[in-house]
Every structure is written in C-alpha cells, then in structure tokens.
Amino acid sequence: MMNMTDFITQLPKAELHLHLEGSLEPALMMQLANRNGITLPYADIAAIKAAYQFSNLQDFLDIYYQGANVLQTEQDFFDLTWAYLLRCKAQGVVHTEPFFDPQTHTDRGISFKVLIKGISAALKQAETELGISSYLILSFLRHLSEEAAFETLEMAMPYRDQFIAVGLDSSEMGHPPEKFQRVFAKARAKGFKTVAHAGEEGPPAYVWSALDQLNVDRIDHGVRAYEDAELMQRLIDEQIPLTVCPLSNTRLKVFADMSDHTILKMLDQGVMVTVNSDDPAYFGGYVAENYMALYESLAMSPAQARQLAINSIKASFLPDERKLSIIQQIRNV
Ligand code: HPA
Ligand SMILES: [Zn+2]
Question: Where are the catalytic residues (predicted)?
Fold first, then answer.
C-alpha cells in the first residue's frame, strides 16, 4: 500500500469550489504589485502572510478583496489562473470549475473583457498543455444589490460561451439567497447552471432557500445542513452536491477544530459531499492538503478518499461519458 499522500495525489479529482482570487499567493501578489507600480502596505512576503489573521468570514473577505487590487491587466489574470492550474497538475486535479468575482474588479475600473480574456486564455492553455479541463463560474457578490448582479450578468453576455454557471459568494449573514431569486431565474432561463454559497456561516434556512428559491444545482459549503435532519434527508434523497472546504471551515471557525468537522459523517450517511480548497493561498492548502487534513484529523480511510474523489467527478458539470471514464480511472488507482 502506497502512503496516503501519494494515494491522494494519484486519485484523479475535480475541484468544484475554488475562488481564483483566493489562489493569489503572497509571492505573486508582491510580483504583480511591483509590475503594476502599486505600493503594498507590507514590506515583504512574510509580512503579507503575517497579516492573514482572521477568524470569521467577514474579516477574511476584507483582506481578500484588498489583495485582489494588484490584479490589473489581462496578463495578471492569466498569471493568477495559470499558477493555480500548475497546482492542479501537481495534485492530480484533472478537472476544475473555478469561480471568479467580476464585481471585485469592474467596481475598481477593470473591464470585464480584461479579466475574462486573461482567465479564459489560461484555462484553454491548461486543456492542451496540462490535460486539465475546466468550466468557469461567474459569481455574484451577495453584499451588493440584485440590480448590480443583473448588470454584471448583462456585461458578461457577450462572453456567454466562456462560463457555464453563475454562483453567489461574499458576506453570507444578512444576504440570504432569495435576495437574488430573479437574477438566478434569468441566468437559468439563459441556459446557465447555478450554484450558491449557503450554510457556511448562515443557517440551514439559507440552504433551503438556495434549493427552493434559486433552484441551484449544487450548494457551496452547506456544512450547517448537518443541524437540520429534514434537510439532510433531502440532500441524501436528491443527491444534491455540497462543495465542502475543510481548511477554510477551520480557518474561519465554522468548526473549532478539524477533528470536529462533520464531512466524513455526512459522506457515510450518503450525502454527496466533495473536498475543495476555497481560497488556498489564504487558508493554507490546495485540494490535496484538504484531503490530507481529513486523513490526519479524522482518520479518513482510503475507501472514503476514493469515494470523495468519485463524488467530485459526479458532482461536476462534465458530460456523463467523461464522468464514467474518470470514475473508472479512480477505481483503478
Ligand atoms: O468561503 C467563502 N465564502 C463566501 N465568499 C467567499 N469568497 C471567497 N471565499 C468565500
Ligand atoms: Zn467559497
């Protein structure tokens, strides 16, 4: 039997919950700041890392939006995305469905075209050079208005073939899914898939409304569904995927400690849970480190790791034929 790190790396996996802006490593942040003539409030890379002190979602978001200011040109968005894709390659991620937050950039004067072109070029190059497939997800910022989300969707329509779904992220409390019911209906009518962050810090009621009012295909996070037995039964019956992010949840104190995380209990009860990294540059690990944390703190078995990898493929938006082929490869590892 090979060791767990090698086993996890060799399992073909999909990543379904990754914010590209959250993959901005301190070293690249420094490099882009220098390239763009921006003065960061940090002396060096160590100082950037030292500033990553947060213990809830809002404190994290304040730092994360600040960091994104160094992203200015198409090349910057390419470099950001490419660096993430190299991590995917090294960790056995064969398919990824990353989020980008257009409003974080358009609201500071960067054009939608600049970001979508840089991101898409890197995703396309990964397909040919790294053998990694991808579908991009356009995420609305929920602390802003539904009106602003409509404007963002409109702005994106000339590039509609470059993203597959819309999502919903940022400050959860006080911004329930139903605030975006009409813009999600419009996105669905246009043929997009939909996902939404719900039940990270917010209550199970937010997961219910993401399902019933936004009609989402997947729930991002969703860990607080564990508190609601009726909701758990629905997730199991309908096999609704949850894109869970263990290191994120412990850094943001959704769980006090990794040993308290409920993901493996949900897995064993038949919930379609998956493992993802969320904002790896901020939370201390990419997808393989998230799997390893479950092994180290929760004694995840090889069979559970394999099932989580299979779930990641099943929960993706890939065509059935490709799903079956990757799942066969997972069974052969
Ligand atoms: O985990 C998250 N939750 C909400 N918004 C986010 N934006 C980046 N990461 C997150
Ligand atoms: Zn997230």
Answer: 200 (proton donor)
| CATH no. for 4-332 | 3.20.20.140
Q: Is any atom of ligand 1 closer than 6 Å to the C-beta of 120?
A: no
pLDDT at 292: 98
**Within the chain, which residues score under 50 in pLDDT?**
none
Q: Is 279 annotated in some ligand binding site? A: yes
Q: Is 278 in the pocket of ligand 1 (CB under 6 A)?
A: yes
pLDDT at residue 2 in the model = 84
Residues with CB under 5 A from ligand 2 (ion): 278
The residue among 187, 191, 173, 266 whose CA lies nearest residue 227 is 266
Any ligand 1 atom below 6 A from CB of 79: no
Residue type at 245 in one-letter notation:
C
Contact call for residues 101 and 169 (beta carbons, < 8 A): yes
Task: Let me know: does 24 contact 72? Beta carbons within 8 Å.
Answer: no
Mutual angle of helices 287-298 and 302-314, in 10-degree steps: 140
Atom 1, ligand 1: residue with shortest CA distance = 278
Q: Where are the domains of the chain?
A: 4-332
CA distance 173 to 175: 5
Q: List, by residue number, the catalytic residues.
A: 200
What is the ipTM for the molecules in this complex? 0.96
